[in-house]
Design brief:
CATH architecture: 4-Layer Sandwich
Radius of gyration: 16 Å
Shape: globular
Distance between the termini: 41 Å
CATH superfamily: Ribonuclease Z/Hydroxyacylglutathione hydrolase-like
CATH class: Alpha Beta
Number of domains: 1
Number of helices: 7
Oligomer: single chain
Structural class: alpha/beta
Order of helices and strands: EEEHEHHEHEEEEEEEHEEHH
Strand content: 25-35%
Largest sheet: 6 strands, mixed
């Protein structure tokens, strides 16, 4: 298994290519990701979105067309792919598979669980593959996703943080949507702080 990452666009959104068993899975292809992805895959299988924000899905459409691969997106965020709700001019794309909350999907023999943590967006999810969490904009190194955007929800974020705390997962490698990687163990030590911070906001 090998993972390549490159921050894309003005928001430096991490685009990941997970290569396992000779297959390439593209996670969150943001702005200007197309050429980098195409130059770094040999057997592309699917595009996986952690959530629907424009800086994570910008290159969905072009890559899906150029590589002839499907898009998997959390069910409650699929409207963002099609409707450009923030008005940034994101090329519209279509989710071939609208993933249900906490659903595990098998894609060409590999299993991915979309762990559902709404709050940053209605469908915000962590994509789990074995001992790795692609945490999107839910959980970062030393921080969490914002809950004050359009379509964000403070109450959902609090419940998601409590859900995370209750999962009793010891550790995972944490690959976030922005900035440096971390571990779930490290970030769990800050969860009580973030629950209080969101409650008091």
């Amino acid at each position: 298994m090998h993972i390549k990452v490159k921050p894309m666009g003005p928001y430096q959104t991490n685009c990941y290519i997970l290569t396992t068993n000779g297959k390439d899975y593209i996670i969150d292809p943001g702005m200007d990701a197309t050429s980098w992805v195409q130059n770094n895959v040999t057997n592309p299988i699917a595009i996986l979105n952690t959530h629907g924000h424009f800086d994570h899905v910008w290159s969905n459409s072009q890559l899906a067309k150029n590589l002839n691969i499907p898009i998997y997106c959390p069910k409650d965020d699929t409207f963002m792919l099609q409707n450009d709700p923030f008005g940034y001019g994101v090329p519209p794309s279509h989710a071939d598979y609208a993933v249900k909350p906490d659903e595990t999907v098998e894609i060409e023999g590999e299993q991915f669980t979309f762990r559902y943590f709404p709050g940053h967006t209605p469908g915000c999810s962590v994509i789990e593959y074995k001992d790795i969490w692609f945490s999107g904009d839910f959980l970062f190194r030393g921080s969490i996703g914002r809950w004050d955007f359009k379509y964000s929800n403070k109450k959902d974020m609090i419940q998601s943080l409590k859900k995370l705390k209750a999962l009793k997962i010891k550790d995972k490698r944490l690959l976030p949507g922005h900035e440096a990687e971390s571990t779930l163990y490290r970030e769990l030590s800050h969860i009580d702080y973030w629950i209080k911070a969101v409650q008091n906001s």
